[in-house]
Write a structure and sequence with these properties.
The chain has helices at residues 33-36, 326-329, and strands at residues 9-10, 26-27, 65-80, 83-100, 105-127, 130-153, 156-177, 186-211, 214-223, 226-239, 250-264, 267-276, 280-289, 307-316, 331-345, 348-362, 369-379, 388-402. The chain has 412 residues and is mainly β. It has one domain: Outer membrane protein transport protein (OMPP1/FadL/TodX) (Porin). A hairpin with a 2-residue loop joins strand 15 (331-345) and strand 16. The longest helix has 4 residues, at 33-36.
């Protein structure tokens, strides 16, 4: 299922990502901006005042009740041949509640989007019935509501997320003749998938004290391949040739509420992190996803056999205990990531790379933080016959840490 032609006309008043046409949409990396600013090294990152939902083993270090929320703004320039198109959006990234459960255990309740589908493509070709325009559109995506828990024994932390993934993806292909004298009706093919199913994720970390305030951490996560139910509705509709009005349209074929299954691929990540107290830390991670396991009912999709991501990131806090110099308590972060996307067009998978940076801004004399991250990168290469996306993403999140639940009141 390649893109219609490279000279397609892309236009939409809100976000339009042609790559989200495939699979279950564009993956939405819904993690704390503090981790995104470090290139996304979520497999090995943990902090007692930041919730890392990508590795549930990190919950074991949670010290206080932590309330988190975040949002993402993104802008992308899509390059097709000599044409450029600008699109963007602003959306919720995540909502988390972390709960300490003793000194060496913790739990998290959270919600986050998993994938986003949003595209609108046009193409005009010369067919046997004359000039014909094709319109491809899609909306929707998947979300995940989950609970997780973790415990730590000596240096080893083990955690698990158990969630329910749900959402609806609606896609439409509309073929229209542009000559009104050939008496050929227009055709529209609509597919709607309402999905829902349980999922789980395993994570672990191991920390080793190297002495002189140095610490080495290794970590990893595993998402096993899993099936989720989907309720499929399909409609083939014939529209009158003589007008854009749909009055008089006829449904030639329909399937309503057919229960099927989608197989989601397994994903694994691992990495290493070196830190010196609360001053600085640097880490590197690798993630791979086996997309050959993916299957979607009655669909032959443009999916590669695998996708990978390599991330490198670092953080630095001049003096976390500084009382009078605010910028000494700010955490500065930077990183880099590269890899390939799971979409494969004409046997070519789209590569990507991005540079990241950001800050964590503390509230005065508390552990609460405002986290920011910026990501600048490129996906695909127009020179290789693929659509190229130059993108900028801005993320902002807030972490409120409340220890009053565990402080005994002197006065009521």
């Amino acid at each position: 299922m390649p893109f219609p032609v490279l000279a397609q006309n892309i236009s939409r008043p809100y976000e339009n990502n042609p790559y989200s046409r495939y699979g279950v949409g564009e993956e939405f990396n819904a993690i704390n901006p503090a981790i995104k600013a470090m290139g996304g090294i979520s497999a090995v990152y943990q902090d007692p005042y930041i919730v890392n939902t990508e590795n549930p083993a990190s919950y074991a270090t949670i010290k206080n009740f932590t309330y988190e929320g975040g949002a993402e703004g993104r802008s992308r320039t899509i390059i097709s041949g000599n044409s450029r198109y600008r699109t963007g959006a602003f959306a919720l990234s995540y909502l988390n509640l972390a709960i300490p459960m003793g000194k060496y255990a913790g739990a998290v309740i959270g919600f986050k989007p998993v994938t986003k589908v949003n595209y609108l493509l046009y193409d005009t070709v010369q067919s046997l019935i004359g000039p014909t325009s094709y319109e491809y559109s899609g909306t929707g995506g998947l979300n995940n509501f989950f609970i997780g828990a973790a415990a730590k024994i000596k240096g080893l932390s083990v955690g698990v997320n158990f969630g329910y993934m749900f959402g609806t993806i609606r896609q439409s292909n509309w073929y229209k003749t542009t000559v009104t004298t050939n008496y050929v009706n227009n055709s529209e093919f609509i597919s709607s998938n309402s999905m829902g199913g349980f999922n789980f994720k395993l994570g672990l970390t191991y920390e080793h004290d190297l002495g002189k305030d140095y610490m080495l951490r290794i970590g990893g996560t595993a998402d096993l391949s899993q099936k989720i139910n989907t309720e499929v509705s399909e409609f083939w509709i014939s529209h009158p040739f003589y007008s854009s009005d749909t009055t008089g349209s006829d449904t030639a074929y329909s399937v309503k509420s057919a229960m099927r299954k989608i197989t989601l691929p397994g994903s694994y990540s691992g990495g290493i992190f070196l830190a010196k107290g609360d001053r600085w830390g640097v880490g590197v991670t690798y993630k791979t996803t086996n997309w050959s396991q993916f299957s979607k009912p009655n669909i032959i999709d443009s999916i590669g056999s695998s996708a990978y991501k390599v991330a490198l990131g670092a953080e630095y806090t001049p003096n976390v205990l500084s009382l009078y110099k605010y910028w000494q308590r700010v955490t500065y972060r930077a990183g880099f990531n590269l890899g390939n996307d799971y979409v494969s067009i004409n046997g070519k998978q789209a590569n990507y790379y991005a540079a990241t940076f950001g800050l964590s801004l503390p509230f005065r004399r508390t552990n609460d933080r405002i986290h920011t991250s910026f990501e600048i990168g490129k996906l695909g290469n127009s020179a290789n016959g693929l659509l190229q996306q130059n993108f900028i993403r801005f993320n902002i999140g807030v972490s409120f840490n409340d220890k009053s639940w565990f402080v005994k009141r002197k006065y009521d």
